[in-house]
Amino acid sequence: MTEVLVLADTHWDFGFVLKAFEARPEVRILVHLGDHCADAVRLAAFRNLTLHNVRGNGDGDCEHGCPLEDAFVVEGHRLLLVHGHRFGVKSGLQTLTDYALERDPPVDAVLFGHTHRPYRRLVAKRGRPPLLVLNPGSARRSLLSDADEPSAVLLRISPGVGAEGIEEEWLAPSLLASGSPPVV
Fold this sequence. Notes:
The protein is of the alpha/beta class. The protein has one domain: 4-Layer Sandwich (Purple Acid Phosphatase, chain A, domain 2), CATH 3.60.21. It is 15% helix and 32% strand. It contains 3 helices and 10 strands. The protein has helices at 15-23, 37-47, 94-101, and strands at residues 2-7, 29-32, 50-53, 69-74, 77-82, 109-111, 118-125, 128-136, 152-157, 166-171. The protein has a 5-stranded mixed sheet, covered by helices on one side. Strands 4-5-6-8-7 form a 5-stranded mixed sheet, with helices on one face. The longest helix is centred in the first third of the chain and has 11 residues, at 37-47. The model has no long low-confidence stretch (mean pLDDT 87).
């Protein structure tokens, strides 16, 4: 089993992220889904982590060479990483979902950010195991509402087919001890 911490939209705010690392020191792989990808470079170097990240609409021409999308394999599962802005995820997820379903080689999960809202859904894949569509929410404390707390997802990935073998533990300040998922 491999544990992967998935973050998005840190926007230079490391308070919650450092608490998540303290609570889950076993993490060795960091996924950052953009806005601000330079944060991920710093965090990965600080914690000596393997990093997979993409840039978002707030990253411009990233000085670290972060791509707009990436895919990698963990325990036999192919994960697709995007920020989401190029797929209009604030207006709906159909474009992103269709894009992920059409990938060759197939992906088992598409991870995105941009909306600052946690999201999880399994989508039927035409003749294949379900696709996991997941947004960890924003790792930054909301400037607009105290009700919106930062969040991230710890993925525990074991060999399996499709989304089977990918377990999620939702992390937020109020959930770090319990691991209960937020309302999505």
